[in-house]
C-alpha cells in the first residue's frame, strides 16, 4: 500500500529517516525513556545485588496473582492497539474507534488495579520508606504507572479525535504514534514485572 | 502528485505556525507564546543572560568572602540576617552561594545559551527549514524552563535557605536536613532540575527530528555546517543523559521527602550510587556544554580566516568521538571516592583518550587560520580566545586524568581552575562569539564594534587574572568549597593570591556591564545590518536581517558545503551554499520513504 | 607557590610529584606550541587588502600526525600513571606490616583510634584522639576510614594523601610518613556548614618517640580522648 503524502518524510529531496516527523520524533523520544528506566532499573540492580537480604521472597509481600492478571490486561491492551492501528490503516472507522476505546478502558483498568494494589500494600504497612525493597518497588512501579496514566490520557485524546473522524487511511499519524508509546510502556512493564515481582 | 508540490505542501504543514511572509500574528502569539523558533531562541537568550547575571553576582559575593574573609561586604547590609548578618557572609550561606552559582551557571546559563539559544535559532535557518519539526513542543520547552528557573531562585527565600550541597549534590548531605540544615532548599533544587530536564528532553528530540528530516534539498550530511553537526550530536547527548539525571534526582527527591533509602546508608542505600548516576550524566553534560561551542567557533574561525575549515570530515568525526568517549569516563570524578581503585585505571585510560579528538579539533582550528586572511571582528576575537583558553582547560584536564596526580589535586582549586577554563574560557567565550555573530540576524542590527573590542580585551585580561592563579592555589593544596581559607596554616601564605583573584573578579564582573550595555543598546540604536554582514556562506545569511517569519520565501536549494571561502571559482572570497554556478547540477529529487 | 608543589613528606610523594612534573612539562610544551602557532598565524596571516586566503580543505598527512602524536603521548602518560596508582592504591598495595589506625570522620571532627601496644584494633587497649593524628616516621600506616553521617575527605597535603570517607563503607588508605614534624589534616569534601574548619593536626614522631607516645596514651591511667 502506498503511503499518503503526509505519512512521508516532510522533505522529499534530502533523504531523512524515511518516516514522517511525528513517528521519528516518537522513536527518538522513546530513546530518552529507555535511559530514564535504565537509571531506575540500574539503581535497582546495584542495590539489590549488594543487599539481597533486604528483599522478601517473591509473593510474600507482593500479590503476584493479581499483578499477573494485570500484566495480562496490559498485554491485551497492546493487542487491541495493534487492531486499532490495522483498522486505521485501512480507514475502517468503526473498528478503529472501538479498538481504541477498548485500549483506553483496559489501560485505565490497569491503572485502577495498580491503585488498588498500592492501597492494599500500604494497608499492610508496606510503604516507600520500607527499606530498599519499598523504595525501589514504589519508585519503579510508580513511574511506570505514571507513564501508563499519561498514555491513557493521550489515548483518550486520540480516541476522541477518532470519533470526530480525524483519522483516515491516508493520514492516521496520531494512532500510529500513540501506539508506539503504548507498546513501549507495555514492554517496560514486562521487564518490571519480571524483575520486581517474579525474581 | 509531483514531488515539488508535495514538498511545498509538507513545508506548509510543518510550518503552520510560521505564517507566510508579511503576516503578523497578534502580539501575545508573536512574542510571548510564539512557536517561531527564532523568537523562542531569543526568549532563551534573554532568560539565560539573566541567569548568567545571577550566577555572576553570586560569584562576586563568594569572591568577597574568599578574598576578605569575615569582613563586612560593602552593601552586604541589605542581605537578611540568615545570610549575612551585618554584611558578613555566614558559612551556611557561602555553601548555598557555591551550590547555586554552579547550578545556575551550568543548568540555567551555559546550557540554555548553547542549546536553547543557538540550537533553536540556528538549526532551522542553517538547514533551510521553515521551522522546527514540532513548533508547539518547542514553545513548551521554553515555557517549562522558565518555572524551573523560578523554582531554583525561590530556594533562596525558603526556610533554611537554598541548596547547599554543591552543584553535584552529593548524598547523604543533600538528603539529610539534620546534617546540612537545608531541607526545603534541597527539595526545590531537585524539583527544579526535574522540570528543567523535561524542557531539555522536549527540545532535544525536536532538534534531532528536525536535523534528520527537514534539511533542504542538497543539504547532505557532508554539507551541514559544523554548528549544526555539533548541536545535533549535543541533542543526542541531551536526549540520553538528561533522563539519567532526572531518574537520579527523582530518587534523591524521594529520599528527601518520602523516606526512601536509595542513597542513605542506614538501610543499605549507597552514597556512591548517587555519584555514579550523577557523573554518568555529568560527564556527557560537560560535553553538552562544550560541543556546541566548538561548532560555533569552527564556523566563525573559517569565516574570519576566509578559508575552508581544515579537515571537515575529521572535525565531524572528532565531535562524534568526543560524544561517544564522554559516556565511558565518568569515573574520573570518583578516583578518590572509595570506588574500587582498579576501575581507576580503566577510567584514566578512557579519559586520556579524549585528548586525542580534542587535539584534532585544536590543530584543525590552527590549520584553518594558517595561510588565511584573518579579519579581527569581535566574534573572531572571541573565537580565537576560545581556542587559546580551551587548550589551557583541556591540558589541565590531563593532570586530573592521571589518577596519582589527582589524589593531590582532587577537590582543590586546580579543579576550579580547570572547570572555569573550559566553561568560561571555552563555552562562554564561544557564546560571546556566537551572540555577536548572529546578533544581526536576530535583531537586524550590529553590536558596536568598538565597545565589543573593549569588552573583549577587558574580559580576556581580567578573566585570566581571576582563573590562572587558581592553578597555583590548587597546587598549594587549597581545597574548594571552603568558606574561609585562612583557617588552615598551610593556606595562609596563599591568601594574597585570593585577594588578587577577588579584585580581578570584581573587575571582570564590571567589564561585563559593557557587554550588557552594548547588547541592550544595539537592540535599539545599533547600526542596521545588511543581510550578510560577515560575508558568510551559510543559509541564514540569504534571508533578510532580522530573519523573517517562516524563514525562506521559497525552499532553498543547496549546491555545496558552507566553507567555500576564497574559492578560485569566483571573484569574491566567499561562495554561498545556494549560489548555482554553471557547473552545478541541482540535487537529485529523490523522494525518501518510498 | 606557582607551579611548584609544596614539599612532600611521605614515601610516595616523590612518585606523585614526579608524575606531576612530567605532565607539567608535556602539557607545557603542548601549550607553548599551540599558543605560539596561534599567535604567529594571527600576526602572519592578518587580513591585507587584495590578498586571498589559500583555498585548501585539509591535509590527511598533517591530520594523521596530530592524531597519532597526542595519542602516543597520552597513552604513555596513562601507562606511567597506572603504575604509580597500582603502587599506591592497587589491590595488594597496602604493606603487610602497616600500622592500622581507625579514623572516623564526623561533622566536623576527626576521631582516630589507635591499636595500642598490642597492635590490634578492636581490643581493650585501644585509645582515641580527637582531631589529632599521630603516626610514626618510616613505617607504613593504614588508615581505616569511616564516616558517621555524610561524606568527608581525609586530606593530608604534605603526604599527598586524599581519600573520601563514605558513611556505610570502610576504606583503607595507606601512607608512610618520612619526616617527623607537624602537619595539617584537612577535610576536602563539602560536608556541611563547618566543612571549612574541619581541620586536624598530624604529628609524625620518630619511631622510638612514637612507641613512647603510644605506651603513655595506651596506659589505663591516661584513658581515651584528650
Ligand atoms: C566544558 C566542560 C568540560 C570539558 C570540555 C572538560 C574536559 C576535560 N576534563 Fe573536565 N571537568 C569539567 C568540565 C569539563 N571538562 C567540570 C565542570 C569539572 C568539575 C566538576 C566538579 O567536580 O564540580 C571537571 C572535572 C574533571 C575531572 C575530575 C577532577 C576531580 O574532581 O578530581 C577530570 C579528571 O580526569 C577531568 C578531565 C577532563 C579531561 C581529560 C578533559 C578533556 O576533554 C580535555 C581534552 C583537551 C585537551 C587535552 C587540549 C587539547 C589538546 C592538545 C592541545 C593536544 C596536546 C595534548 C596532549 C599531548 C596531552 N575534568
Ligand atoms: C559556565 C560556568 C561558570 C561561569 C561562567 C563561572 C564564573 C565565575 N565563577 Fe564559577 N563555578 C562554576 C561555573 C562557572 N563559574 C561551577 C560549576 C563551580 C563549582 C560549583 C561547586 O563547587 O558546586 C564554580 C565554582 C566557583 C568557585 C569555587 C568556589 C568554591 O569552591 O568555594 C569560584 C571561586 O572563586 C568561582 C568564581 C567564579 C567567578 C569569579 C566567575 C566570574 O567569571 C563571573 C563573572 C560574571 C559573569 C560572567 C556574569 C556576566 C553577566 C553577563 C555577561 C550578562 C549580561 C547581561 C545582560 C545582557 C542583561 N566559581
Ligand atoms: Cu568534613 Cu568537609
Ligand atoms: Cu568529567
Helix proportion of chain A: over 70%
Strand content of chain B: under 5%
N to C succession of SSEs of chain A: HHHHH
- What's the order of the H and E elements of chain B? HHHHHHHHHHHHHHHHH
Low-confidence stretches of chain B: 1-22, 590-594
Question: Structural class of the secondary structure composition of chain A?
Answer: mainly alpha
User: How far is it from the N-terminal to the C-terminal residue of chain A, by CA?
Assistant: 45 Å
Structural class of chain B: mainly alpha
* Average of the residue pLDDT scores of chain A: 92
**Number of strand elements of chain B:** 0
Task: Give a short summary of the structure.
The complex is a heterotrimer of chains A (199), B (594) and C (226). In chain A, 73% of the residues lie in helices and 0% in strands.
Q: What topology does this entry show?
A:
The complex is a heterotrimer of chains A (199), B (594) and C (226).
Chain A: H1 21-50, H2 64-89, H3 93-123, H4 131-163, H5 173-198
Helix pairs in contact in A: 1-4, 1-5, 2-3, 2-5, 3-4, 4-5
Chain B: H1 3-14, H2 27-32, H3 37-67, H4 91-127, H5 135-154, H6 177-180, H7 184-213, H8 226-257, H9 271-288, H10 291-305, H11 312-325, H12 341-369, H13 378-401, H14 403-409, H15 413-443, H16 449-475, H17 495-525
Helix pairs in contact in B: 3-4, 3-5, 3-17, 4-5, 4-7, 4-8, 4-15, 5-7, 7-8, 8-9, 8-10, 8-11, 10-12, 10-13, 10-15, 11-12, 12-13, 13-15, 13-16, 15-16, 16-17
Chain C: H1 13-44, H2 60-89, E1 99-106, E2 109-114, E3 127-130, E4 132-136, E5 141-147, E6 152-156, E7 161-165, E8 171-175, E9 181-187, E10 200-205, H3 207-218
Parallel strand pairs in C: 1-5, 4-10
Antiparallel strand pairs in C: 1-2, 2-3, 5-8, 6-7, 6-9, 9-10
Bound molecules: heme-A (2 copies), dinuclear copper ion (CUA) and copper (II) ion.
